[in-house]
Amino acid sequence: MEFFISMSETIKYNDDDHKTLFLKTLNEQRLEGEFCDIAIVVEDVKFRAHRCVLAACSTYFKKLFKKLEVDSSSVIEIDFLRSDIFEEVLNYMYTAKISVKK
Once rounded to an integer, what is the mean pLDDT over residues 82-90? Predict the structure, then answer.
């Protein structure tokens, strides 16, 4: 946590923990199905997520969402990826952590 005071007496605050808490809260919401507005189906496995997170982390999803009319009941099927791999990528988007086998 940092505070900055400039010559104009403006106090600036920088919370380094905010981004960590933000990701943690979004991931908790995803895992509980709260505020999820998209479902991605991969190999018959359904993953709930937030479009804004997917679009922010992936140009593929950003372009897809711009092209398609999607709403909170939208389901998108992906047939070019295994479900276990998509799950790892999705978890990375929400946690900034990933496990990859050699």
Answer: 96
